[in-house]
Structure prediction request, 372 residues.
Amino acid sequence: MTDSLQPVRVAIVGAGNIAETCHMPAVRAQGADATAVAVVDVDLARAKAFAATWGIDEAFDDLHEMLRATRPDLVVVCTPPIAHRDAVTACLDAGVAVWCEKPPTLSVAEYDEIARHERDGGPYVSYVFQHRFGSGARALRERIRTGALGKPLVGICHTLWYRDDAYYQVPWRGKWATEGGGPSMGHGIHQMDLMLALMGEWAEVRAATGTLARDVETEDVSMALVRFASGAMVSMVNSVLSPRETSYLRFDFPDATVELSHLYGYDNSHWTWTPAPHRSGETPAALGAPDRNEASSHAVQLRFLIDDLRQGRRPEGSGDDGRRVLEFIAALYESATTGRPVTPGRLTADNPFYHSMSGTPDPRTAKEELHA
Prediction:
């Protein structure tokens, strides 16, 4: 728990594009509730330039030195996925809460390893799933919770984006060992997390993947049919080959269809609430569309996170709640590789897809075991 009368002291780890475009604007949006006190990057010159741009007092090229010198309340990890584990565990071991970019980790095993560094009452690590926090998603979650539109029946969860060959010139992209997967891990994870957060527990996935056009180790497209514990069925597509880009979610209930069509973020104008014929004429407000318009963003998730931090609560998007989508993605990859349906109970420690999304040993884990 932190002092509610003082701003939360935030440190940024990784001074790249995501920190520049998303995380520092999110910190600034908190006003007096948060202040950035340090930035860390393996390239000290880049860290110093970032600090100068944003008016941050301290710049470091060593995470442990920063933790000792500045003792922040919250560290925001904006590194490539391969560096998440070491950064997050170092912060937790130092007693500092963490907010980490997606994908959370390279594997379910790595996620569980990190979780063992948390302590009862904190610090906790939560992950960037900002689409859960816009007013449209919060309103729909409440309608599903109360059953106001009937039981969810049919869904669509499509992330149809475009990334050209130049995008994959960044050395860590498109490789299992450093990115953990293709668009299912690095792109569609936001839409899939929102679908899972709203629809509840999944029960079975049947999937296929392909590498159709990009020179990468991972897939550049995946498709899945998902059954939920409620009985609902959902179609999922994740692509980086789609020139007309869209992120599209659809929820069909007995009493209404609710749709979200956007790209990288939404507000209420991106939602459509359509009544079923027997409720024809009802307004979106009558169906549950919110009056308050709050866009999905890093800023709104950070506001929730700061409140949780001050109250000593486990934040949304952490623990089992943050693990759900990672376990689902591992199951998607297992189904695509084996050609068989996969259920949640299969993702145990004796399953190779628990240890890596490709179903092959994590080279770092294999090296550690060799020298154990």
Remarks:
- The domain at 8-130+300-315 is CATH 3.40.50.720 (Rossmann fold).
- The two ends are 38 Å apart (CA to CA).
- Residues 319-338 form the longest helix (20 residues).
